[in-house]
Amino acid sequence: RVYAPRTYAVEREKRSKPIANGIFSWIPAVLRVPDEQIIQRSGLDTYMFLRGIRSNLIIFAVIGVVSAATILPINILGTNGLSGLDSLSIGNVDSKSSRLWVHVGFFALIVVWTLWNIVGELRIYTHLRMWWLMHPNHACRAQASTVLVTDLPKTLVGNEKRLFRMLDTFPGGVRQVFVNRSSDELTDTVKKRDRLAAKLEKMLTKYAVKCVKTYEKASLRGDMYVQPPRPVIRKGPLSLFGSKVEAFEYLAAEIAMCNHYIAQSLKQMKDFKREPSALVMFNKQIAAHMAAQVVLDYKPFSMGNVTVDVNPEDVIWSNLKISPWSRRIRGYISFGITLALTFLWTIITAFFSGLIQVGELTKLEAFSWLTKNKYALGIFSGTVPSLVIALMMTLLPHILRLLLRLEGTPRFSLIDLRLLHRMFFFQVWNVYLVNILSSSSLAIVTNALSDPTSIFTRLQEDVPKSAINILTYVLLLTFIGAAKEILQGFSLAMRYLVPLLFAKTPRKIYSAEKPTEFNWGATIPTHTLVFLFGFSYTFIAPYVTWFVALYYAIFYIIYRYQFLYVYNDSKWVTGGLSYPKSIQQIL
Questions:
Q1: CA 280 to CA 147: how far, in whole Å?
Q2: What's this model's pTM, rounded to 2 decimal places?
């Protein structure tokens, strides 16, 4: 249920065959699955993600082999007298040595090799993207030829015929136009009905279990079965006030009233308030893609956001009400908060870590006992600050998602696609530039201020030393990250806690059985960051590329299993749009 839910909990055509018992039997099993079946079972987004991981593995595997045969011997035979891993870096080679030209040639070679691979993969992606768009399974869907147009001008909001005529010029013409409407009363009634239905289902399930237990007890004693009294409920707010009534009949009557109001409201849908957005369904798929790529209005921000392949479950309907100017202002505020959060993250983490320093806590009477127990003191001082920082890093994607939603992003999939860039920018600044290179950068700047002519010497000496920090971080991600990914500790805990504490109805038990969804927006930037680590130090410290290749090799095998047997992202269907965004980050 945790490690292989896709063998039973998904559509039959997307299920994977169970794997034989054995600690490592899953590795050859997933490697034997052809690429066509991966696309069929998990979709193009999954396949392009796996293909990107495999491409990075090939890039760094070749770079590692070539570097071991070319620049690594030159570094080892250097005359600067460095020891340990530093002797394998370019810092061990004298800055006046003519052998450094080999490093220049090697770097030029790996740039050509990397670009050649990227261009080749983008060509394959383009062909697969076109194949996916024109495949009958996708092209036959209504969403394939439907676009969502936001920020409609007032002249078109109340005139559907004019909007129809304007877009009917595309090939095949328009089949239908739906100007979105809203009703707060109807929305509230639907939410109320869902709450009442969930409450009724919970009470019925609880009562049925009680009846079964009563019957079993009566049977064991040989007594006559007597049905337990039905539960009662108060009619007032929060079921705390008002007269008592029979719960089942009252809730059923309330649900019936909500259904009647919903049915009557749908008949009067033309009276609902029109919103500045519309769903336009074309007769041909090519017309929808053309409409999404042209300028529909000459006015600033008017009809500027047109998206294709619209799935109603993917739309954030509340954000369609936002005006274009408000959306723009919200975007600036959201981006400003993201920048502030990125640059101030080091200060924020230091602040929260400082709040829980043992020296400060032991001054409080509640924590004074720590000074008497060295073992507890050591565990507390070494674990708690790291847990606080880890918790903040876990909350970060949720904070950024909230900002993207508040700024008016109309679709959930667009939020994750935009999250890719924000998470990558955050990690480049806080992991690569600040945490990894802070020591060498500070030394370089300090010496440059006192002796500007020594900057190149300091660069040669200090930058290679930071390769050990990068290597440590990559190894940490390789083994701890891989173990976390394959063990699925959180999903394992939730699998037993949710049914035990919360899932008391068939509907909630079914929801608890659903496979886990992959965190695209927060995970892809981490793999791109590792690429940045490896490529930056290919000629400075070539041994880093060996472990980067190991990183991609381990995660490639793990992710093949996870997407075939664990993850189910039926709502994440973009046709591989995350892949070119990750390539953009690499470049």
A1: 5
A2: 0.80
